Amino acid sequence: MISEIVGGLGDIGFTVPPRAWTYGNQGPGPGPDYRDTDHGHDWSASTGRAMAGNLVAVARAPAANPLPAPAS
Fold it and tell me: Which among 64, 51, 70 has a CA at the least distance from the CA of 13?
């Protein structure tokens, strides 16, 4: 699902940095709800921090290195 969303955003000009999403790391198949267990919470939190850092870095990049206007 995320690949379709990211692909669509890229098709219309959005920049989506790597690891721009996170999820609970419980593995495939049915299992307990994320809130009902402590399994994977450290992994999910560290992935969330990396995701936020990547998003901020990509958001700041154009201000530091603006692209020139296209030639007319």
Answer: 70
Q: What's the pLDDT tens digit per position in 1-47?
A: 788 888 898 899 888 887 777 766 666 667 777 778 887 788 888 88
Task: Give every CB contact of residue 55 below 8 A, 6+ residues apart in sequence.
Answer: 17, 20
Measure the CA–CA gap between 46 and 41, rounded to whole angstroms. Answer: 9
Helix residue spans in 1-72 (DSSP H):
2-11, 41-64
Distances (CA, A) of 54 to 19, 50, 68: 7, 6, 23
Vertex 55: Cα angle to 70 and 37 (nearest 5): 155
